[in-house]
Amino acid sequence: MAAKCSICFFSYGFNGLSEGNYGNDVDSWKKNVSLFLPSRRRLLPVCCKLQRGNLSSYNRRQGKKPPFERIRPSAKLQPNSDDEFDPEHSVPNNGDMEPSVNREKTFEDDVDARGDAEHTDEKNSGTQFASAIETNRDVKHADEQITDSPAQSAVAKASAINGVGAELLSSVQPDDLIGMIKNAERNILLLNQARVHALEDLHKILSEKETLKGEINNLEKRLAEADAQIKFASQEKVHAELLEDQLENLQNELINSGGSGKSELELYENRSKISNEGALLARDGHIHSLSKEVDSLRTENLALKYDIQALKSMLSNLKNTDKRIVTLENESSFLESSMKELESKLSVSQQESSNISTLKTECKDLWAKVENLQLLLDKATKQADQAILVLQQNQDLRKKVDKLEESLEAATIFKASSEKTQQYNELMQQKIKLLEERLQKSDEEIYSYVQLYQESIKEFRDTLNSLKEESKKRALDEPVDDMPWEFWSCLLLTIDGWVLENKILNSEAVPLREMVWKRDRRICDAYVICKEKTEDEVISTFLQLISSQAR
Question: Model pTM?
Fold first, then answer.
């Protein structure tokens, strides 16, 4: 992700050169010539992006530097020429800055979409931003030292800084820089205006789309309500048809109630006959028991006959006894009466057996009739089932016809609404096409402005790089005047000690002495860097300086 920040372009003129810092312990010894930025009232805010890696590296470098004394809020830095710089035209007011900040926030998404093509420019801008902040801090530190130091040192340093600044101004034309900055400002304003117009068009399109979605949702709700009403009406129709069918069935049953009375009588007669047959069967069982008793009586009669014969024989033998004869006559009369009763019972049983045979024939006829009636009932039930199925099919067909009619009505309504929506969609598509064409034109204009802006930035960077290279070369070639003579005498003594100890040759010591007498910055920096190292490492670094100088 890229973090938003504001980079400050350099305004007209260079305010001077300041002391720089190398890092850790070397910061107090190194001198770095850099460009001075004017005060915050004169900075031109421009929206750009900076990678997190650049910010983190900048923070690390700032963390390594020694803590400078903070500038007081009352302290202000004065530029070289106040007449040539007009703050009213360069810096917007607070009221103008707030909408620009809001526009930057609203344009984040568009800028992120085009961020892939600008990563290389962002990295370079990040490095420039870091270098600009470093130079600004260096200048502030230099001004603090100037204010805190005595008057003589302040005058000497100011004269040196103004001399170097004059040389830099002679090599660079400030009118070109001012023109480039003004062109960049104009391009940025045009880009912001184009983006604002494009965003307004997009907001209008989105609002129209939202209204369309709301209308579509309302239409869908109305269609759902119509479908629910149609379903409820179809259910009521089906319920009414069922009630009508039930009424028709009840009327048919009432009409056919006269014919059904006869059938009920026949069923009642059949039931009575079946009950009679059951009674006859019970009687048959009783007759069978009576026949068994008759057989037993017959056997008893035979036995009695035998007894009578024996008695007759006994009477023949006992004619003399009248009493016995009277008794025997009484017994015979009794037996005869019993015989007559038995004969009457036999005649009754014979009549009952004849009646049973007739009842059996009648039962067979009744069973045949019952079977015929069952067949007729089966046929009637089948016909009734078929009639019920036909009625159900008719009801299903009626329901389907009603549903088809309802669907046709809904389809006609939907066709009318769909035609209207199609017309409206066509109008909206035409509007959207016009808006897309406008957006394409605006994007092309924005792209052209961006290309011009990038070209101007590249030219500006080239000039800055050339200025930095020249300043570095001059800084290396200049002697170090701020170091005390004790430092240089210490260097000469160490070199002489190395020669006496035969650690270096006399031929190698001669160029080192010349560099010390010339107060060369390279040998000063090398000595400061190798201050905490061993003596062999210091000698090797000094010999490398000689070898690089020979090359």
Answer: 0.20
- pLDDT, position 322: 65
pLDDT (0 to 100) of residue 371: 85
- Token digits for 326? 């009277």
Confidence of residue 324 (pLDDT cuts 50, 70, 90): low
Per-residue pLDDT band at 280 (split at 50, 70, 90)? low
Query: What would the pLDDT profile of 195-241 be if each residue is shown by its tens digit?
Result: 888 888 888 888 887 887 787 888 778 778 877 877 787 787 787 78
Question: Which residue, among 7, 137, 12, has the nearest Cα to 83 in the 3D structure?
Answer: 12
Residues in the chain: 551
Does residue 156 form part of some domain?
A: yes
Tell whether the model's pLDDT for residue 243 goes beyond 70: yes
Same domain, yes or no, for 165 and 293?
Answer: no
User: What's the rounded Cα separation, in Å, for the pair 268 and 13?
Assistant: 134
Residue 512's Cβ-count burial label (10 Å; 0-12, 13-18, 19+) is buried
- Rounded Cα–Cα distance for residues 91 and 153 (Å): 35
Amino acid of residue 291: S
Q: Is residue 35 located within the same domain as residue 111?
A: yes
The number of beta carbons lying within 10 Å of the beta carbon of residue 471 is: 19
In terms of domains, do 487 and 532 share one?
yes
SS3 labels along 163-197? HHHHHHHHHCCHHHHHHHHHHHHHHHHHHHHHHHH
Task: Tell me: do 203 and 275 sit in the same domain.
Answer: no
Instruction: Choose one of 401, 432, 463: the last residue of a domain.
Output: 432
Q: How far apart are CA 545 and CA 493, in angstroms?
A: 18
Spell 159-187 as b/e; 16+ CB within 10 A means b: eebeebbeebeeeeeeeebbebbeebeeb
Residue for token digits 């607070």? 94
Do 195 and 335 lie in one domain? The reply is no
DSSP string, 303-365: HHHHHHHHHHHHHHHTTT-HHHHHHHHHHHHHHHHHHHHHHHHHHHHHHHHHHHHHHHHHHHH
293: containing domain: 247-432
Beta bridge partners of 7: 46
**Mean pLDDT value across residues 32-50:** 39
Do 185 and 37 sit in the same domain of this protein? yes
Question: Using one digit for the tens of pLDDT, what is the confidence trace for 439-448?
Answer: 999 889 999 9
Give dist(CA 114, CA 353) in Å, integer. 123
> Do residue 253 and residue 111 come from a single domain?
no
Q: Which residues pair with 46 in a beta bridge?
A: 7
* Gap between the Cα atoms of 216 and 469, Å rounded: 67
- CA 486 from centroid of its chain's CA atoms: 74
pLDDT at 22: 39
Output the CA torsion 507→509→510→515 (10° steps). Answer: 140
pLDDT, tens digit, 9 for 90 and up, residues 486-499? 888 888 888 888 88
Alpha-carbon distances, residue 164 vs 14, 157, 160, 330 (angstroms):
10, 11, 6, 189
Domain count, the chain: 3
* C-alpha span between 344 and 351 (Å, rounded): 11
